[in-house]
Amino acid sequence: MKNLSCFFTTVLAFLLLNNIQINAVDRETVTAVPANDFLNTIGVNSSINSRGENITKTLECAEYMGFRWIRAGIPDGVNLRPVHLKWLLQRHVRISCSIGNEGTIDYINNFVEGAKVVAGLGALIALEGPNEPNNWPVVYNGVSGGKGTTSWRPVAEWQRDMYAAVKADPVLKDYPVWNICENGAQYDNMGLQFLTIPDGAGTLMPDGTKYADYACCHNYFVHGSSRQNNQTWNASDPSSACPVDGLYGNYGNTWSKHFTGYSAEQLQTLPRVTTETGVTIDPLTNTEEIQALMYTSTYLAQFKRGWSYTAMYILRDRTDEGGNQTFGFYKPDYTPRKAATYMHNFTNILADTLSIETPSEFTYSISPARPATVHELLLQKNNGTLMLVVWGEKYVRGALADNITVDFDAPLEVVNVYNSIAGTEPVATYKNVSSIPLAMLNHPYILEINPVVTDIKNVYKEKSILAAVYPNPVEDFMYVESSEGLKKVELFDLTGKTVLQLSDVAAGKTTLNVASLAKGSYLLRLTDGKYKTENHKIIKL
What we know:
CATH class of the largest domain: Alpha Beta
Number of strands: 26
Largest sheet: 8 strands, mixed
CATH architecture of the largest domain: Alpha-Beta Barrel
Mean pLDDT: 88
CATH superfamily of the largest domain: Glycosidases
Number of helices: 12
CATH topology of the largest domain: TIM Barrel
Low-confidence stretches: 1-24, 454-464
Strand content: 25-35%
Structural class: alpha/beta
Number of domains: 3
Distance between the termini: 67 Å
């Protein structure tokens, strides 16, 4: 034994002296992010009620896939009737209003008035500048700039004046303004690579010119027909390592003329959004399956790497624009592609409508050494349940899965494992478990850690539960979801007065509007067809 001990001591000393790493696994303590905060970043491009879209279908699709916001250009946002905006809000969907590419200061003022209508109903999240001046010229006060012209000055003046008009309005002044996109294409240095031009920048517009509150990019993760590992992860990279038209090429060192913008350090924390990204289907390279997988991983990668909002292009394929026929989650006739189904599964597994105020810490590790194509995001629902999302980005044809293990700091009572490409029910359940093996390729696994019994995902496993009720506490809208129909749904205040009642409620999800109720405690009573009852204490915020 003595000789064996000396042998291991000698080997350890040799490894240390020669700087040879020992493959130890470092446990990491991570603070969770509210699941609702992540879900709020997930958006999509849509004309909503024009270019062949039907508003009822648009809203159905948005609700099915769990989108929280829609990027809609003027005049779409202005032409929406208040009832349409209310429908959006009932589905937790808001919009960003994008200004057009041609007009005058009067046009900008009309844009502001239209945006105020949207804001007045609580449906606005931001205002965005002209779309891709490198592809469609901007005409401001009769002068053209951008594509096919000699200067980007009209583009810069348009964005500057729009920003000033928004910030001067008492209703809109606190809403963020997103910059133009593709500003890396400017061929005279108008300083559009800055949100506010700093002193001494040497641009053709004056120092202190204010353009926006957020950088805006169209960092499409596939250029051409290439398919690489970490495709969406790399496209989300804010540094010069980004291989596509991303943050660095528009705000660090512009890709057209290499005008200097923000430093590498500044880019890491620069407020930023993506208002377009996506990929067309190519049966040889980017199949419908690969497109669907990449769309899910894009939202995860973007959020993990600091993007505040991400909108995929596009909800439904358009028929009025050549070359854009297979970007969509839906075909022109609203037939869903795999991307729609996978998004539905993914957002339903994570479903939440309130943000937990003080997220928990959780300690875990991945072994063996973490593969470069494996990433994770720790989320937490408002009921306290932790959701650890682990996803892979191996997209090269013929790639083999990496077998990893997620190790926990202590045994966990219950862990449900979901695979969002397989459905919305767990593919495995572990009890009293300290580690879980996963085969990582190109889709996410979601580990639901010590789930709350009344959580929506456990409804059909607990026979004593008639329905899932969420969110609770609730602000405006509450949902009752059951596998079978209910005879009655009744809500009582503490005096026993009935404040809401429904009869013969069909199976599935039913929305209860409690926005007008006073803050406080209520009793929700559910009665099934056999007159079995179930009570839920509800907190109204």
